[in-house]
Each structure stands twice: as structure tokens, then as C-alpha cells.
Amino acid sequence: MALAPAPPTGRFARTAHGVRKERAEAVAHLVFAAMAAAMVLPLLLIVGYLFWLAWPSLGPEFILDIPRRGMTEGGIWPAFVGTLYLVGISLLVSTPIGVLAAVYLNEYARANWFNRVVNLAVINLAGVPSIVHALFGLGAFVYAARFGYSILSAALTLAIMTLPVIIASTREALASVPMPFREACWNVGATRWQTIWAVVLPNSVSGILTGVILQVSRAAGETAPIMFTGAVFYKAVVRGDLFPYSLNDQCMALSMHLYTLATQVPNVKESLPYATAVVLLGSVLLVNAAAIALRVFLRGRKRW
Amino acid sequence: MSAAFVKRIEVQGLRLAYDSKEVLHGISFDVYQNEILAVIGPAQSGKSSMLRCLNRTIDFTANARMTGTVRVDGEDVRRTRDVYALRRKIGMVAPLPVGLPLTIYDNVAFAPRSAGLVKKIDLDAIVERCLRQAALWDEVKDRLLNLGTALSGGQQQRLTIARALSHQPEILCLDEFSIAIDPVTTMRIEDVLKELRREITIVLVTNLTQQARRLSDRTMFLWDGEVVEIDKSDVIFSDAPKSRRTRDYVSGVFG
Q: A185 contacts in B (CB within 8 Å)?
């Protein structure tokens, strides 16, 4: 289309093309905004619906009390503590291994066959379904290592599951530290480790921690891996006891408890499974909020 | 120039390839004690790559392959037992100022600390001496614990120079140090370099032919990975350098 010379009006006259452009812009804006809103809506509905149905059971008593009357009444203490144990131990195992492995892969590794294999393994491990991790945990920890059905087996299975994701998120955090910083350190005769310790780690720690904390929610929510390896239907513990389990005990867990209440136990008080779900969701959101707060705090100290 | 032509750096047949693309096609030159050797040439002529071969930071580029020999004080850099000592002997200043995300003090104290120096009194002395040498001390002496990255571009470049001096190098390599800073700051740093020449040897890679002319004793013209000409700067910048390409380049006919 040939461009007609502009009429000498001395103004910015609207052209037909300009009008079409504005209309397309408005439509695009609307569509994108609608999609963003559509994403929030289900979340609000789910949370609202859960709270509505869970309301009669909610309260500190619900968390602190143990299940009563064949699990048809009472609270969730053994499951709540069980989940704390499982998540805590699994991250204690997977965080150091994952972070150190990521430092190696991002800062030391050269492009040779060994590192390519490690890379492939990490990527593929991240894509393995949790039920497969469960079977692996059953074979490796419960039977081969003779840990039996226990918190240890279940936590290690969760650790294997979260490890590749921690490695990936840590690598990303390390890679976000600009290369010239490293080169400046190498130029003055610093070793790789001195460079990592003085410059790379302090400036990637917020990203590393965020990645680790996000795995808390994943570990807390998974049911299959712990069901196969150490979580049980019911375990008698003392109400409010903070240390009811030892490492080779089996334990209850929130995700598993929710599944049990919803499908296995007859005549459960109606609000009970919903209240369990609210506690699970609430703890996860709380941890995520802590992660965001930490991130904001550490980013405030970021130095370039 | 010093009367005794002591060779500090000897480069012989240096070839460098990134994967299959060769960027240095076997260059040879020497750098003498207490001289300023300017290296001029257009972008992509291999100037920065050449510097990275001198202190072996080229090792950090996975696909780089270096052949030929580089000797620093007679020692083959690829056979040296202590590559960290080699890097401390050579100070490097990058084209863009890199203030490390540390305090001004720590920026300068980083290299001595990496080398094992821990006493505060020694570090204090080094920090002050290097910041003075880089003409930055007066501007920052009251805020040494502020972040180096918060300084202005010109100050950061002088901080970079202070850091390069902090490990007491005997040879200082500057890679287009003035591209990110204003002419006034550039002149101040050039004065610093003239001062430093009494003590150390300087390799000055620059895009500014006038800067090379102002500062250097000898000039090397690098073109597409080959040394076109290396001679006294008086000759290179005269009407009659040996190569016609050199004359055209320095007089601004091309490049």
C-alpha cells in the first residue's frame, strides 16, 4: 500500500490504520487482563469453599488434638507433626546435596561426557512421576537399605524427589550472577572457590533459598511417595507432643490423612477432611509467604 | 625507555582458536621492562583474546584452544606450577568497570586476602596505597565501607585499576580502559599510568590511536589476528611506518 502524503493540517490526524491499531491494542489488553483474572478466580473459589465447609472444625484445638472415635472426630496432631518431620528431614538431606551439586555443575563443570550425563540425569529425574519415586523408595530404602517402613525411608524418598528441582533452581540462581564479577576475581589470582565464596554465593543466596523453600510445599503435598514408604493410617501419640516419633517409626502425615478421611473412614464428621485440607493449604501458603518475605529482605541487600 | 632491554613477556607463534574459528594466527612480540606497549587495532582483531592468554584466564573459556608459547619472565605460562601467582604478577583492567558487589575496601583487599594476607594493618596500607595510585583515594577515603558498585562509572573504573594494583603486579594490562568514562577522567588515569611506568611495565590495549600516541613507547598494530607492525611509537605514528595499512589506520583512512 502506497503511503499518501500527509495532509498539511498541522495536527496529528487520525488515520484508518491508526484507528485499527488502537482497537487491536484495546482488545489485546482486555484479553490478557481477563486471562490473568481468570487465574485468580479458581484459587479464591477453592479457598472460600474449603473454609466454608471446614469452618465448624477449625481452631487451635483441631491442630493440637489427636483423632478420636475411629478418626471420625477430634484433631490432626499426629499427622501435622508427621508432615513437619517428613518435610524437615527430607530438606535437611536434599538441600546440602542439591546446592553443592548445583555449585559444581554451574561453576566447575566443563562440557565433557560425564557432566552431560549428570545434566541429563537431573533433568530426567525432575520429570519422573512421584509414584515412580515411591516405588524406588520402597525398593531402595525400605528393602535394600533395610530402613523398613519408617520416617527415614519416607523422608529420603521425598529428598530424592525434591533434589533435581533444588539443583535446577540453585543453578539458575548461580547463573544470574554476572560473569564479569567472576572474571574480575580470577584476574587478581583468586581460585574458583574463593570467587564462589566471596562473590557468587552471597549474591545468589536469595534465589537459592527461595528455590529450596518452594520445595517445602511440594514435599508436604505429595502422598504417593510416603504412602509406600512410611506413612500410616493411624498412629497413637500424645496430644500436643512435639517429639512423638523417632526416625524408624512410621508416622501419620497430612496429605495421607486427608486421603484416608475422604475415602477410607465411614461416618466422618463432614467438616473434618475440609479442615485438614485447610491446615495443609494454610501451612504451605504460610511457608511460601515466608519465602517471599525472605526474598524481599535479601534482595534489599543485593549489591549491584 | 630503560636502557637494558629486559624482556618481561615473550610471545612466540601464539595461535588461539574458539572451536574451529582461529582468532590469533600465530603472533609474536615481546614486552620490555618499564615500557608502555600500546596495542591498537579494530574490534575483533584479537586484542582482548591476546591479553587473556597472557594470564591464562583463557582457561575459563571452555572452547578455546591455545598453541605457541607465552613466556612471562622466562617462564612458560602453560607450564607454570602456580597459575595464581602468575595472575598476581599481571594486573588486568577490563574494558567495562567492574566494581565487585563488595565494599570499596573489600574490593581492593580482595586480592591480597586471596593470596593469604589477613592482618588488618597490612591490608589498610595496601588499600590506601592502591586507591592513591588510582587517583581515587581523596574521593572515597571517608566512605570506604560503602559499596563499590554504588560509585559512578569513572570512579568504578579507577576502583578496577586500584584492584588490579592491589596484588602488586609487575605488569599491568589495560583493555580499553577508557571506553566507559569521560575524557577528563581518562586524562587523570593517563597521568596515573605515566606515573606508574617508573615502577611497572604496561600493556595498553586501546581503540583510541591518539591515546596510544600520547602514552606509549612502542605500538603494535594488530589486524585480524595478525601483527601488522610493531615498532617505536614515533615510527608508527610518523608519515612513514613500514606498512601502508598501519599508516592508513592511524591516520584514519579506515578503521
A: 100, 110, 114
Domain segments of chain A: what residues? Answer: 70-300
| Residue B168 at interface with chain A, using a CB cutoff of 8 Å | no
pLDDT band at B45 (very low <50, low <70, confident <90, very high): confident
Q: What's the whole-number average pLDDT of chain A? A: 86
In this structure, CATH architecture of domain B7-98+168-250: 3-Layer(aba) Sandwich (3.40)
Nearest CA in chain B to A108: B60
CATH architecture of the region A70-300: Orthogonal Bundle (1.10)
CA distance A194 to chain B (A): 7
Minimal Cβ distance to B100: which of A110, A199, A302: A199
Which residues in A lie closer than 8 A to residue B87 (C-beta atoms)?
186-189
For A240-298, how does the pLDDT look when each residue is reduced to its tens digit (9 = 90+)? Answer: 777 878 888 888 888 888 888 888 877 778 888 898 999 998 888 888 888 888 888 87
Calpha distance B206→B187 (Å, rounded): 14
Contact B94 A190 (CB under 8 A): no
DSSP conformation class of A56: G
Residue boundaries of the structural domains of chain B: 7-98+168-250
Is B203 at the interface with chain A, CB within 8 A?
Answer: no
Closest partner residue to B57 (CB to CB) among A186, A302, A304 is A186
Pick the residue from chain B with its C-alpha nearest to A201: B101
pLDDT greater than 70 at residue A199: yes
